[in-house]
Amino acid sequence: MIAPETIETIRAFNRFYTNKIGVLAKDYLATPYTLTEGRILYEMGARERVSATELNRDLGLDPAYLSRILKKFREAGFIESEPDPADKRSQILNITEKGREIYETLGERSRQQIADDLRNVDEAGQARMVGAMQAIRVTLDPSTATPPAPVIMRPYRIGDMGWLIEAQATAYAREYGLNEKFEALIAEVAGKFIANFNPERERCWIAERDGQRVGSVLVADGGGDTAKLRLLYLDPSVRGLGLGRTLVEQCIKFSTLAGYKKLSLWTNDILTAAIHIYEKAGFRLVSEERHAMFGPECNGQTWELDLSEAKLSAA
Hints:
Elements: H1 4-21, H2 35-47, E1 49-51, H3 52-59, H4 63-76, E2 79-84, E3 87-95, H5 97-117, H6 123-140, E4 151-155, H7 160-176, H8 180-195, E5 203-209, E6 212-221, E7 226-234, H9 243-257, E8 262-268, H10 272-281, E9 284-291, E10 298-306, H11 307-314
Parallel strand pairs: 7-8
Antiparallel strand pairs: 1-3, 2-3, 4-5, 5-6, 6-7, 8-10, 9-10
């Protein structure tokens, strides 16, 4: 069932956007043409040669309405037509040089309008807008979806910890109701990792897709022969792809090669997806305690992995 507020939100956006691009205006892009007339000119200019039947089919126009617009274009010298050998009731339409000039003018003015609208929008805002448009298109027409870009793993670099803190704090507040004290904990862990970083004993991995950060995890020195797995996070867009398991495996391999005997982590029982990954990797729950440090009551849990056993299972 679709919530009434969802419908009203979409209707409000439709009103905003149709006004923004001038759907209702008679002088689309400061020309004497309507948006529909501009779209028909675009299709003819882009295709070079198209039948009236194809235009009807692809644009969903009333045949009589399309016929009137084509007559107008023919009289203005924008198009030429000839009988369609495949359909005696249709015509093949060719755009003339005069029509192409209008087509190119409309295209340039459309691009300029978009550039003007985005003049005060930063790159991050532009990326969010484009991503939202792509999401709308794929949601309403899944056939337009393109294969997702591969996820790559790379080492930590400057700026990553700021993203990691914001991403985890906002995601867990939204999904689990955790408060600002959880954000403080993430910031503390990240800050100590940067301040005391030892490349021989510690490591951070950032997962990226199409240039966007989508996941992270780090191994910190826990003292003695114990390493700590910290700050495992996956963006909702990549959950369910096995990326969490891959990140945890990276931690296990690095900790083993660095000479640690044990890999330890602390988490909360509400993070069931992460706990499932830890269990699959061989971690064992060694202790837990009830707390409400971050708002909701939950069980804080300590999990440990004997790396000698992990090496045996990997063999």
